[in-house]
Amino acid sequence: MTKHALDGVSPFTLTVVQLAASAIFLWTLVAVQRLRLPPRREMIQPAVTGLLEPGLTITFAVLGLKLTTASITTLIFASQPILIILLAWRVLRERLTRPLIALSALAVIGVVLVAGVNPGDGNSGTLTGNALIVASLFACSLYLVLARRMVMTLDPLLLVALQQIVGLAWVLLVWPIELTQIGLAGLTAIPPGAWLWAAASGIVYYALGFWFYVSGLKGTPASLAALFLSLTSIFGVGGAYVFLGERLFPIQWIGAVLILLAVFGVSRPQPAEVEAAHRQSPISNYQLPLSSHRRPS
């Protein structure tokens, strides 16, 4: 959906439309479900994390992609499960286990194969571009780890809605940089279909995608949930094959199998050491019922 939208919409303009559509969708659901806002001081920290994702994540990625290659970007983001596991260990005190580390490495290899990346293609991008992509990866990964902590005391829907309002505000501040290049005439030249694709993709990715993932974090350690992100490459390549007619190569099928094996490994009943690590997490056993955030009938 995003690829269709990018045919007629520039990157930051696309992000503005996506986040605006997502915010409207999320806050409509908040109103329909009659979720009660917590005190203002309790909303500040969750909302500010919206600067990490989608704010800084998108900004660094868009700027970095102009200075590096898609292949190098894919290689860098393939390491996300490992980075999230390390951040979860450092920030949330989740215990590292050998099976978890091994499955993460397997997933990283699978992502590289699915993406069809050739590290030896001789095009490594610029140091600045690669650094911006690394910064984007770090911002995204840190957000996902912090979301695990915050979702224990705040409804997932309300948490994501607050974050994306702040993320939208940040992107609106950055947007004029792009507008000076494309001009207002560039906006009027965007076909109506591209606007619809942009809005629809924003609801699917930012609203539903983040809402579902953060909801899942409520009952899953961040270090385990990180491995499920590797499925993104399978859905992305598979969707490109089905909807865009892009061809899949045998090496990509092998990578997909490796990813599925890794995800299957963490989806099985957890061994005793992982269960113990989960119990030792200072936040793993604390869950606030969703009903406590609803207005009394």
Give an overview of the whole structure.
The protein is mostly helical. The protein has one domain. The protein is built from 14 helices and no strands. The protein has helices at residues 2-6, 11-32, 40-48, 52-65, 70-78, 80-91, 98-115, 127-150, 156-188, 192-217, 222-228, 231-243, 250-267, 272-280. α5 (70-78) packs parallel to α8 and α6 packs antiparallel against α11. The radius of gyration is 20 Å and the shape is globular. The model is unreliable at 271-277 and 280-297 (pLDDT under 50).
Task: Please render the helix and strand layout as text.
Elements: H1 2-6, H2 11-32, H3 40-48, H4 52-65, H5 70-78, H6 80-91, H7 98-115, H8 127-150, H9 156-188, H10 192-217, H11 222-228, H12 231-243, H13 250-267, H14 272-280
Helix pairs in contact: 2-9, 2-10, 3-9, 4-8, 4-9, 5-7, 5-8, 6-7, 6-8, 6-11, 7-11, 7-13, 9-10
- Rg over CA atoms, rounded to whole Å, is 20 Å
Strand content: under 5%
Number of domains: 1
Write down the overall geometry: globular
CA-CA gap between termini? 40 Å
Query: Helix count, per DSSP?
Result: 14
Largest sheet: none
Secondary-structure element order, as H and E?
Answer: HHHHHHHHHHHHHH
Question: What do the pLDDT scores average to?
Answer: 81
Flag low-confidence runs: 271-277, 280-297
Count the E strands.
Answer: 0
Q: Structural class of the helix and strand makeup?
A: mainly alpha
Helicity level, as a percent range? over 70%
In short:
The chain has 297 residues and is mostly helical. It is 74% helix and 0% strand.
Record keyword descriptors for this entry:
297 residues, mainly alpha, single chain, 14 helices, 0% strand, disordered C terminus
